[in-house]
Task: structure prediction
Amino acid sequence: MCREGVPRGRQSCAQVHRTSTDSRWLLPCNLVSVNPADLRSAVRAAVAAVVDNGELSVPVPDEVTVERPKVKGHGDYATSVALQLAKPAGLPPRDVAALIKAQLERADGIDSVEIAGPGFLNIWLSGAALGQVVGEVLAAGAAYGTNEVAAGQNINLEFVSANPTGPIHIGGVRWAAVGDALARLLQASGAKVTREYYFNDHGAQIDRFARSLLAAARGEAAPEDGYGSAYIAEIAQRVTEQVPDVLSQDDPQEVFRDRGVSLMFEEIKASLHDFGVDFDVYFHENSLHDSGAVHRAIERLRGLGHMYVADGAEWLRTTQFGDDKDRVVIKSDGEPAYISGDLAYYLDKRERGFDRVIIMLGADHSGYVGRLMAMCEAFGDVPRVNLQILIGQLVNLVKDGEPLRMSKRNGTVISLEDLVEAIGVDAARYALVRSSADSQIDIDLDLWASAKSDNPVWYVQYAATRAASVLRHAADLDLAAGGEVALLTHPRESELMLALAEFPSVVATAAELREPHRVARYLEEKVAKSAQRFWDECQVLPKGDAQPEPTTAPRLLLWQATRVVLENGLGLLGVSAPERM
RNA sequence: GCGCUCAUAGCUCAGUUGGAUAGAGCAGCCGCCUUCUAAGCGGCAGGUCGCAGGUUCGAGUCCUGCUGGGCGCACCA
Result:
């Protein structure tokens, strides 16, 4: 298919008491970590204990829900497990909650437990337990946030795949940012990821491109169905420079095709590289036709009995697998239809050993999902497992309150370069990944170019530079980070540590749901926000000639940990974490 | 006409597996700088989660219908 967008273009701990291994240098005592997964284990252990001593007669659930409450005042963490167990236990939820509360309160690291509302358990952690997260972050460093949810998966992630007939337009740019971020998230979650670009160098669109180049070189008007923008003349010019006698050759169009396509492709690769996106594999559609892969894929489907002949053409019975209509694979003129390339390409990816094939497409290709899923099933695979298709909505750029439609650079649709030129790579990438791909977004160029907290990427980067700034000044004053993190009991400190503790689960969730925007939202609403609030109320460095406070050294540890999370988080999005701004 | 998708504050958007009083930022109003970057922070105000039903102890979240945006519906690629 044409991949162009519209204008064509963490182990479970069976015991509540556990010896910390990650932060031995900070806290020698037995503590429940603030890692939500560990707290979940603690809650489950409390349930198991209540069941063991016969107070409650229910199967112990494999998984219990422990989450950060949405509302302040509902604890550091909260669980609705009592509500879930009330029915099977045949007891009022608050009675079940009371039993679990009694067990939970015995756990070290848990400061207090409260029964609230219909039977929620609100849990407050001790300052020492909270402080432990600082040690965990610093011990892991750049690896903090990595997890195992996608461990063992071999994923092929195809995105962008814009046709080499023009610059990458804004739709493709969204996928470049989101796809690359998703690749990083999946890698951080333990998957082996291959970033792949399907280079569509076969077919009629390329023919039109070649004819357009030829026309431009001859000074003629663009062909009716061709491309006529400024970049065409530019590419034609370059081909002419490379091959001065091109116009007098036997088949100049063929020269323009070869040279033009590679020039255009190199330009696309270069702009993506400048955007921080590099692919492991650039797959040429032509190679599928040349190698006989297309023929083999069709032969395979014939063997499986999914092909039939009608009206002089050969069809794939995709309706058997939920598609709207059957699809022509070989046209009545004997030529393979476009879908034949997709058949061969999917099979090729599976034969290369990928157990999960993910393809990111624009909303204008939502109609392709049915047939591609049918194809997947026809090959005997499981749709939505072996093959996943992510559909992203379109992006609008807004300048001075008006939608921007045309590129100044070449008079066509807005390109990658236009966007980067307007707001820079960091802002562009961040703007594109901070919203769900399901929603159509407006990017206000004035907002994203501004240096104030209205600008989300600026806000997050500013928090990172504040961390760097404090640490730099501390170094100048010969103040070392260290001391007792248990001294970090200020509400702003607790809030920040709770935020830092969430990072690995945010990464895991974002990877599993293929939603990189969750990381961005977490960084701005939880980490950057808490860090700014910490900054505002918790002076770290001694003022004037004052002596350092006992909290000075542990607060420096907290700033270090904050810096790590911001760097790691931004890194997953392909956005820099500057030292200064 | 059929299919996919979206609809949450004036605006731009969060809210996976159903849980408490639906959140953030901007815009508006009121406060906080002899202090590590005020390029910041706090507070007030702002909502029939498009509409109507249904399932459930409980629905923004699941189901059905409807309305309104976006996208798509070729032996084109």
